[in-house]
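Tutorial handout. Part one gives the primary structure; part two gives the three-dimensional structure as tokens.
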Amino acid sequence: MGVRLIFKNAVLTALLSGEIDHHAAREIRSEIDGTAERVKPQKLILDFADVQFMDSSGVGLIMGRCKLMQIWNGTVEIVNLPPKIERIVSLAGLNQLCTIEKGEQNEAGK
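Part two.
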């Protein structure tokens, strides 16, 4: 589990990796929120390219970041979803809270 954060041109990109379960989601949330509080990005990109597993804790992680970004009038974009995780995200209705990009994205957010 892990997250690498890149801030460039008012965009905070979170490169997620490993498995996102209850324990991992708590650590990822803390890292993203701490950095976002400091830099106040206009857009948060959650990159799932290196995520192998996600349970409902990951859904909560995404929802919470969407609400956080709404406070700052920012947006959330989810990219590079593996098919199984895309299904979970879709069933949770997260496409109504944030943008889900199909296809490959680079780590700097295009």
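Part three, for discussion. The beta strands are 2-8, 11-20, 43-54, 75-79, 99-100. The chain has one domain: 2-100.
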